[in-house]
Amino acid sequence: LGGPNRTTTVTGPLGDLVAAAWRLDRRSASGSLAGSLTAVVEMALASGLDLVGGAGANDPVAATSSGTGELMAAAVDAGARRVVVGVGGSASTDGGLGAVRALEPLARLHGVELVVACDVRTRFVDAAAVFAPQKGASPAQVELLRRRLERLADVYLRSYGLDVRELEGGGAAGGLAGGLAAAGARLVPGFDLVADEVDLADRLVDADLVVTGEGFLDEQSFAGKVVGGVAGLAGAAGVPVLAVVGEVLDGVDLPAGVEVVSLVAEVGDERARGETVAAVEEVVGRRLAE
């Protein structure tokens, strides 16, 4: 989505203030005027693990999603009637409670479409076991967080009438997706949302080759992530795919029409990490010249 970046100071994952960028625009991806203002909020810029210095510096029990809710509230106050929230890379496993509280009173969301873009199918309570260890949680903390999510699911059911336990993808970003769903958001696959915004299916019709990529390619790459989504659309259009990735897991079954190139194997780890753009251009250029 277009539009210039705006910056709002919000509560970071561990309570420190952070300056988080977001966007507000009236144009669609094609550049035509849309009917209402659309805001794009990236959770990682307000509540991300990188903001606290990674898992080793995180407090996985205290970490909050409040800043994401504050960004969403700022977008609504600025006139947005559609708010798209990208989730992933969060520091918190608070079930979105911080964000929901920051959005209160929820009556302010009347007439506002909330869309959460997520690429995992993890259930709400399972977020503790699946994601919290990546955020620095010990086994004891994982169990504490699991029980906390169980109780929070009961609160959401009583307060908003939605059982987030049964919501596929509700565990994304430590349960933030489920919390926002309780507040009225619609969860959609991130790839599908972006593909629709840029009219990807139509753009593939006249293509000779599609180039896509990912940091590490494994079986999960073809289960709702970008590479798998691109491969599906390109396959339907009869267009071959070149996936340029950092590394690839041995033995991954590739769909028909998909070729994978590992940057690390082609140019070495140092260049793959330090000169990524140049390395991708070099590898793709060689393939096109063949």
Can you walk me through this structure?
The protein is α/β, with parallel strands linked by helices. It folds into 2 domains: 5-191, Glycerate kinase, domain 2; 200-289, no CATH class. It contains 12 helices and 9 strands. The chain has a 6-stranded mixed β-sheet with strand order 1-2-3-4-5-6. Helix 2 (66-77) runs parallel beside helix 3. The protein is globular and about 60 Å long. Residues 28-34 have low confidence and may be disordered.
C-alpha end-to-end distance: 35 Å
Oligomer: single chain
Model regions low in confidence, pLDDT < 50 over at least 5 residues: 28-34
Alpha plus pi helix count: 12
Strand content: 15-25%
CATH superfamily heading of the largest domain = Glycerate kinase, domain 2
What Rg is obtained from the alpha carbons, in whole angstroms?
A: 20 Å
Helix proportion: 25-40%
Overall number of structural domains: 2
Strands in their spatial order, largest beta sheet: 1-2-3-4-5-6
Overall pLDDT confidence: 92
Largest sheet: 6 strands, mixed
Top CATH class of the largest domain: Alpha Beta
SS content category = alpha/beta
Shape: globular
State the CATH architecture of the largest domain.
Alpha-Beta Complex
